Amino acid sequence: MKGRYCILEQIRAGGEGTLYLARDLELGCLWAVKEIPVSHKKEAKLLRLLEHPYMPRMIDYIEKEDYCYLVMEFIQGKSLEEWIKEGRHFSEEELLSFGIMIAQVLGYLHSRKPPVYYGDLKPGNLMLTENGKLYLVDFGSAVQSYSRQQKECWGTMGYASPEQMKGQICEKSDIFTMGKTLQALLTANLAKYIMYDPLFLWFLFRCCRKKEIYRYKNMQEVEKVLKRIQKKKGKGRYAMAVAGITVLGLVAFGILLTGESKIPEFRERLTQVTDVYYQIEFQNETRNKRTEAVKKVRDQLQEMLTLYTKKDEQEHVLQMLRANEELFELLESEKGQEGGGK
């Protein structure tokens, strides 16, 4: 092509086009060449405006009859989907690292003017190199617009957000697909995460809420939460107490088994009451302010006992109250230790 690029082999073919490996006859290096119908060349127009460490660079563009060719940086590695099919299990550290990298590249896209919404995040569109670096590939479904409403809003069933399936997309749609993607990577180790890292499960739950208002606000917040989980992982009795409340909350919402609660109103209220525990502000507050927050949660849970009278609702609230009381006693014991040290 162009008297410069010699096609060596086909790497893969899919719904978004065919990918080839090519040699640059002038420079002697290897490039990836993506062939797509010329009617889909908006991907090329978009990629030439973007540059990020976790995205392959586009270095040339060629049109020939009914097709166009995007010459891009060749990423040596496998997609996360390929790794899953081969039976690889990712460690907790790897998943947190993946999440942070995804949040950074999506945050970059959302900060463009107008913002770019990726729209089709899934394991198959994330390439992992041998040195552990993640690349976001395939921008065929990306949308650049200030408007939520789109004439065409593509995505993958099982990953796309509810609003995306209705032809609307925003930055919280990408947060939803990010949560679904990370869920797909931990499925085989779900039991381990329930026991040892429930805060990460809570993070995924927040990402994947059907109603946008209950998801994280933006990718900057997502990145901060992931880094906090990474930093606080396995830190003593306090972390275990908060983790215990997290597990009970997840069970109450039914997501460990079904992914959805059969009592939407109860679920939403319980989220509002206990959400304080998963905020960065709570984790960084003084002991006195955390104690006041725990007391407030206790009062709200006690109020819920009078409002929700079904047996399963009452059981969940009582479990949360017991866990909340354990956290309160822990904070009080810290107060006693501080007093004894004076």
TrEMBL record:
Q: What EC number(s) does its UniProt record assign?
A: 2.7.11.1
For this UniProt record, give its keywords in alphabetical order, as a comma-separated list.
ATP-binding, Kinase, Membrane, Nucleotide-binding, Serine/threonine-protein kinase, Transferase, Transmembrane, Transmembrane helix
Q: Reaction catalysed?
A: L-threonyl-[protein] + ATP = O-phospho-L-threonyl-[protein] + ADP + H(+); L-seryl-[protein] + ATP = O-phospho-L-seryl-[protein] + ADP + H(+)
Q: Which CDD domains match?
A: STKc_PknB_like (cd14014)
Domain of life per record: Bacteria
Tell me if Membrane is a UniProt keyword of this record.
Answer: yes
Tagged with keyword Transferase: yes
Record protein name field: non-specific serine/threonine protein kinase
